[in-house]
Amino acid sequence: MVIQLPAVGETTTIVFRLPTSIWADTVHLVGDFNGWSTSATPMRCSEQYWEVTVVLTTGSTYAYAYLLDGIDWCSEHSCVERAVGATPPITLHPAPIAHAQRMAMAEHYR
After folding, report:
1. I need a surface site. Which of 25, 38, 57, 79 has the fewest CB within 10 A?
2. What is the pLDDT of residues 59-75, one digit of tens each?
3. Alpha carbon of residue 66 to chain centroid
4. Angstrom distance (rounded) from CA 78 to CA 63
């Protein structure tokens, strides 16, 4: 699940969540916004969710995926919830797994 908060100036806060029913010891958010780095954006585990908050440039488009335990990739259906007052200043697309793997591998060898 992706929650988009209202934009503040040139930035928008986005909360990414996965249910803790996903069996993993570590989960990282990987995407255009962090150069497809497989370690730059770790998610925190609470009782209900794996969660991370990122601040992105308003008006941009981003693709993303999740990396579980540094090995397994997962994506999700596009499910963006917008908080009251949040217009769609950011477009988020779950990346197909093969695309996420290629982009992360390309970034790894830069």
Report:
1. 25
2. 888 999 999 999 999 98
3. 7
4. 11
Q: Residue 42 sits in a domain of what CATH number?
A: 2.60.40
Output the pTM of the full model. Answer: 0.86
Could you tell me the residue range of the domain that residue 102 belongs to? 2-108
Residue found under tokens 């995926």? 65
Strands (E), the chain: 2-4, 11-19, 27-31, 44-45, 49-57, 61-68, 72-74, 80-82, 91-94
CB 10 within 8 A of CB 24: no
Query: How many structural domains comprise the chain?
Result: 1
